[in-house]
Write a sequence for this structure.
C-alpha cells in the first residue's frame, strides 16, 4: 500500500461521483455505439425466434454450439464477483476496496446475459414455463427435477438473486451520499433506494456484519453454480470427454480464472475512463496478478488432470476424442491458441513485477485469458459432439452461422451497455469502503523509514 | 413541547465524542442520543452504546423455511408425475439434494437481507434531524428532547464542544 494518497471525504465524493453527477464526454457516443449492437442483436434474436433454430449452424450431432459455449463463458465471468468480493471481504484484504463493487456488478450482468443463451437455445423460450415452473398447466406434467434443465435455472436464479441483493445492500450507504448531492427526480430515486439511511452506529455495524454474513452465504452458492453447469455436461450420456470426475472443480477454477481476469480488464478501463488514478492503483493490479498466477496454475493442473483421467482408462472412444481435440485440424490450432492465451502468455508476463504493475500489459493479458477461456469452453462443447460415432444416423460438421456470431457479439455489447448504464447512476467504487480505508490508515516511523499502517478491529 | 430533535455538527470524531459525553453528563439517556457519520468508525469511537442485533437468527430461519419448501417441492412433483425407472426409487435423492441445497441457500440469503434492513431500522422515509454535510465528513450528534429545557441544555453542550452548527427538526 505504498502508493496511497490521503484524501478527505469530500474529495472522495467528488472523485468517485464524477461520473454520476456529470456525464463524461465519451459516455454518450460510447452508449450509442454499444446501443447499436444491443438493438440489432435483439432484432437478430427475434428473427431467430420467428424463423427457427435453422438459422443457426446447429444440427445433429452438434446440438450445442456457440450459444452454450457463450453461456458457460458468461457464467464463468460471473464468478468474479463473489470470488473477489466475498473471499477478500472474509479475509479482510485491504486492497479489495476499489474492486468489490465492479466485481459484484460484473457477476449480476454476466449472469443475466448467460441466462439468455439457454432461453434462446430452447427455440421457443415461452415454453420454458412448462419445464421450469412447479405447476402442471392442466396437462398433469410437473417439472422433472432430475433434469439439468431444471437445475440450471434454480442454481443461476439463486446466484443472481443473491448477488443482486448483495450488491444492493452494499450500495445503500452510497445511495445516501447521492441522495444528499442530487436534485429533482434523481433525488427522489436515490431517496427511495437509500431507504432513509442516516449512518448511525447501528446501521454501520449491520452493514459490516452484513458484508461478512452475506459473503459467507454466497460462497457455497458460488461453488455450486459452476459445478451444476458442469453437470449439464457430465450427466449427458454417450458424449466422450464430458464425464470426467474432475469436471465440477475444473469448471469452478476455470470460472474464477476468467472472472478475475475480467475484473482486471474492467479495472483498467475504469482507471482510464474515469481517471481514478488515486483509487485504482498499480498495487491493485499487482495483487490481482499474484492471485491470478495461483488460480491459473491450479486451472492448468485441472486441465491436464482432466486429460490424464480420460486417457488413463484407455477407452478407445475417449482416446479418439482427445486425439481429435489436440492433434486434428482445426481443433489442434484452437487448442494451441487456448493454451497460449489461457496460460502461457499471461502467466509468462505476470511472474514479473514490472508487468504486474503495468496496467496496459495487465489489460491485454487479461483479455487474452478470456479469449483462451472462451476457446476452452468451445473445445469442451463442440468436439465431443462432433466426433463421429458408430450409431449416429446423421453426421455433419458444425460451422457457426452469422446469426450465432452476431448474437455472441451482442452479448458482449449488452454486458458493456448495462455496466455503463449502471455507472451513470451509481458509483462503481464503494465510497464508504474507500472512506473507511482512510479512517483506518495512518503512517508510522520505523527508524528513518515512514511506512503505512492499516489498523484492524478485533472480530 | 412536542418531541424535537437537535443535531450538532462537528469537525472531528473527538469533538463528536466529547459532545456525546457532555449529553450523558447533562442527563440524556443513551437511547435518546445518536451519532451520524459518513463512514464507519471503529466501535466505541464516540463512546456510544454498542448496538445489539439479532441478525444471525434470520438466515437460520430462512434456511429452515427454504429446506422445508424444497423437500415439499421435490417430493410432491415426483409423486405427482412419477418417472418410473426400472429398479430405482421414484424419489431421486441426488437430484433432490441439488434443488434442496439451492432453495435453502436462496431462502437464507433473502431472509438475511430482510434481516439487515429490519435490524438497521430501515426503511425510514422521515429521517429527522440530518445534514447533507455528514456524508462529506462532518460528524452529526443528534439528541431527542422532550422538554424545552432539554433543548437548551443540548444546545449548550454542543456549543461548548465546538459545534459548527446546530439544527432543530
Amino acid at each position: 500500500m505504498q502508493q496511497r494518497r490521503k484524501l478527505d471525504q469530500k474529495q472522495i465524493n467528488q472523485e468517485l461521483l464524477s461520473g454520476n453527477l456529470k456525464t463524461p464526454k465519451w459516455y454518450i457516443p460510447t452508449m450509442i455505439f454499444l446501443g447499436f449492437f444491443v438493438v440489432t442483436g435483439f432484432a437478430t434474436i427475434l428473427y431467430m425466434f420467428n424463423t427457427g433454430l435453422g438459422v443457426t449452424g446447429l444440427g445433429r450431432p452438434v446440438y450445442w454450439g456457440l450459444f452454450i459455449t457463450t453461456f458457460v463463458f458468461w457464467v464463468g465471468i460471473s464468478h468474479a464477483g463473489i470470488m473477489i468480493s466475498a473471499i477478500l471481504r472474509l479475509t479482510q484484504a485491504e486492497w479489495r476496496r476499489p474492486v468489490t463493487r465492479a466485481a459484484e456488478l460484473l457477476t449480476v450482468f454476466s449472469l443475466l446475459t448467460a441466462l439468455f443463451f439457454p432461453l434462446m437455445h430452447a427455440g421457443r423460450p415461452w415454453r420454458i414455463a412448462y419445464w421450469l415452473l412447479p405447476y402442471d398447466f392442466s396437462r398433469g406434467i410437473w417439472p422433472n427435477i432430475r433434469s439439468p434443465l431444471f437445475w440450471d435455472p434454480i442454481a443461476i436464479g439463486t446466484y443472481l438473486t443473491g448477488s443482486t441483493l448483495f450488491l444492493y445492500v452494499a450500495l445503500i450507504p452510497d445511495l445516501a451520499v447521492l441522495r444528499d448531492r442530487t436534485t429533482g427526480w434523481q433525488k427522489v430515486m436515490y431517496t427511495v433506494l437509500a431507504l432513509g439511511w442516516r449512518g448511525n452506529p447501528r446501521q454501520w455495524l449491520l452493514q459490516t456484519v452484513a458484508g461478512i454474513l452475506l459473503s459467507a452465504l454466497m460462497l457455497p452458492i458460488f461453488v455450486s453454480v459452476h459445478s451444476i453447469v458442469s453437470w449439464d455436461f457430465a450427466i449427458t450420456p454417450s458424449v466422450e470427454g464430458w464425464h470426467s470426475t474432475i469436471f465440477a472443480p475444473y469448471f469452478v477454477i476455470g470460472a474464477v480464472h476468467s472472472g478475475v481476469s475480467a475484473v482486471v480488464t474492467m479495472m483498467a478501463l475504469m482507471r482510464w475512463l474515469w481517471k481514478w488514478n488515486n483509487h485504482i492503483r498499480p498495487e491493485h493490479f499487482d495483487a490481482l496478478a499474484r492471485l491470478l498466477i495461483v488460480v491459473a496454475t491450479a486451472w492448468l493442473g485441472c486441465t491436464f488432470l482432466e486429460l490424464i483421467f480420460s486417457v488413463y482408462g484407455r477407452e478407445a472412444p475417449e482416446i479418439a476424442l482427445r486425439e481429435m481435440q489436440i492433434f486434428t485440424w482445426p481443433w489442434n490450432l484452437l487448442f494451441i491458441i487456448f493454451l497460449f492465451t489461457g496460460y502461457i502468455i499471461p502467466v509468462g508476463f505476470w511472474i514479473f513485477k514490472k508487468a504486474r504493475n503495468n496496467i496496459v500489459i495487465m489489460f491485454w493479458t487479461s483479455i487474452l485469458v478470456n479469449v483462451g477461456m472462451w476457446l476452452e469452453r468451445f473445445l469442451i462443447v463442440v468436439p465431443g459432439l462432433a466426433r463421429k460415432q458408430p450409431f449416429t444416423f446423421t453426421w455433419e460438421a458444425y460451422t457457426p452461422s452469422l446469426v450465432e456470431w452476431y448474437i455472441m457479439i451482442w452479448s458482449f455489447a449488452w454486458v458493456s451497455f448495462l455496466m455503463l448504464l449502471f455507472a451513470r447512476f451509481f458509483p462503481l467504487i464503494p465510497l464508504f469502503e474507500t472512506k473507511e480505508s482512510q479512517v483506518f490508515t495512518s503512517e508510522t516511523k520505523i527508524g528513518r523509514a515512514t511506512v503505512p499502517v492499516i489498523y484492524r478491529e478485533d472480530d | 413541547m412536542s418531541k424535537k430533535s437537535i443535531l450538532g455538527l462537528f469537525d472531528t470524531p473527538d469533538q463528536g465524542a466529547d459532545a456525546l459525553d457532555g449529553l450523558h453528563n447533562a442527563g440524556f439517556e443513551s437511547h435518546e442520543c445518536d451519532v451520524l457519520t459518513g463512514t464507519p468508525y471503529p466501535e466505541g469511537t464516540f463512546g456510544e452504546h454498542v448496538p445489539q442485533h439479532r441478525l444471525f437468527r434470520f438466515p437460520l430461519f430462512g434456511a429452515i423455511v427454504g429446506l422445508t419448501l424444497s423437500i415439499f417441492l421435490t417430493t410432491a412433483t415426483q409423486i405427482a408425475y412419477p418417472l418410473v425407472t426400472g429398479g430405482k426409487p421414484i424419489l431421486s435423492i441426488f437430484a433432490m439434494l441439488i434443488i434442496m441445497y439451492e432453495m435453502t441457500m436462496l431462502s437464507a440469503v433473502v431472509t438475511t437481507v430482510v434481516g439487515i434492513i429490519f435490524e438497521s431500522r430501515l426503511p425510514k422515509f422521515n429521517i429527522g434531524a440530518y445534514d447533507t454535510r455528514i456524508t462529506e465528513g462532518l460528524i452529526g450528534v443528534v439528541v431527542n428532547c422532550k422538554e424545552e429545557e432539554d433543548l437548551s441544555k443540548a444546545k449548550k453542550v454542543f456549543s461548548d464542544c465546538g459545534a459548527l452548527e446546530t439544527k432543530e427538526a
